[in-house]
Structures are given as structure tokens and as C-alpha cells.
Amino acid sequence: MQTNFSADGDESRDIWFPSLQVLDLGTCWEAAAGWTDETKDKGRLHFPALRALKARCKDGMPHALRRSVFPARMDRVTILATAPALLDISNMALPSARHFQLSTEGDIAINPAAVAAVQRILDRARDGDEVELIHHRDSRLLKRPEILALTPLTRLEALVDTSVDTVVEIIRCLPRLSSLDIRLQSAGSTPQGISVPEPGADRLVEPISSTLKCVRISFYHDDQNPEPAVLTLRYLLLAVPSLTAISAYGIPGVLMDSFIDAHADQYPHLARLKINIHANRR
Length: 282
Hints:
Blueprint: E1 15-16, E2 22-25, H1 29-32, E3 45-46, E4 52-57, H2 63-66, E5 68-69, E6 73-82, H3 83-90, E7 96-105, H4 112-122, E8 130-136, H5 145-148, E9 155-162, H6 164-173, E10 179-185, E11 214-220, H7 227-239, E12 245-249, H8 259-263, E13 274-278
Parallel strand pairs: 1-3, 2-4, 3-5, 4-6, 6-7, 7-8, 8-9, 9-10, 10-11, 11-12, 12-13
């Protein structure tokens, strides 16, 4: 449904949507074409009953978003934004939400203002909220997990290729992370610092202290040499005792068949772990 926000030609009047519960805002074509929107003399848009908000800010800030007044607390807020829009969003009076999702793309890690904006946006969360970051295109933000550690993230989805050491450091640095969805570029050689003892060995894999419960990981590797990817998966299975479910893509299942049984006595958490192995990549 399309709505004209002016009232009898008087844009200084406030407009109320007393029953609206779901709002999906996109950047209008005027903003994409370089038009400006002066909102200081325009009325406010009030959404007192709103429960779910989605705002797309890829080409700029939706004009309606600048003028909106939301409840202080909502069920779900989803924001899709590029680096230039993050600063404006972080300065808005956005509500907190039981599930808050921020989807970003671009070279945020080299833009200190954008990094600070991400932190301010995510810091609106309360204890117990689900806070999700979906990051596209640039892997440099993932290589600085100390930045992400300053946010209350509970779920991270990274749609960029990254390395084993980065994945391990992310798990170590994010104390509230419960779900991780990531793509791992596995080279043709064994990852440095990653090893899996033989069953019954005196030396065990050092556990990573974490709240991580669910992992979905896609491996991209040399099809002629899947061993580094298999080794990485085996290491994560043993090193993260908090895990309850893991889905792996791009891994030959036959290479994992007997691994769990062979290590179950020394790593009791494997007994409750649900594992799904997919030979095909996502």
C-alpha cells in the first residue's frame, strides 16, 4: 500500500498510524537521484503500535525514516545499510528490539566513523536480545574481531571468504555469540596452528571458551585436496565444546564418518552435537 504523507498540502502536520504493526521502508528514487529532503519543518510520522520495522538504506536514508517516531521497544528491527548511511542511522532514535538485525556492506573496517556507527547501533540491545550482523563483500572487518567484540552480537553472518585463524579469533573474541554463518577459503596446505591429535592421545585440543551453539560453514577449497578443509572442521568440532549443532558444506562426508566415534570418549560434548555434512557447496 502506498501512502501520501502530506495532509491537505500542509506537510507541517503530524500524521498518525495508530494500528500499523509492520513497516517496510525503502530508499525512494528521489534520494537515489540526488534530491534532498528537508525534514526540520515537516510533521512527524507516528507509529505507536509498530512491532516490526525494516528499512533499506543502500542508496541513502529513506525520507520517511527521518521523520518517523517509533515505540521505544519492538519485536524486530531490520536495517540494511551501506557505510555512508550508517552514521545517519546511528544518530537516530531507533527502538531497541527483541531481534535486531543490521546488514552492512562495503569497506567499513577502514572507515572509523562507520565502525563507531555500527557499535552505536548495536549497543541499543538489552540483555537477552538477539543481535545479528550480516556483513557483505569486505572481509577486513572480520579480521578485526576486537571491533566486533565491543558489540553485543549474538549472531554473525559473513558473506565473504575468510581464513581459519580469523574464524577461531572471532569465536574467541565474541563472548555472546551463539550462531555463526561463515564462508571459509581453505588453501591447499594445512592451516598453521591447527592440529588434531590421534584418538587416545595424551594431548587434547585446547578448548575455546565460548557461548557458540550453532555453526554453518561453507568450505571453498581445491577439489583435489580437501584434507585442509576436513582438518579445519575436525579441529572446530573438538575445540568448541559449547557447540550443539554444526552444518558444513563442501566437505566429503566419507572422511568424517568414523571421526566422532573415535574421539567421543575424550570429548564428551560430541555426544550431544548434531552434525550435517554436505558434499556440495551452498
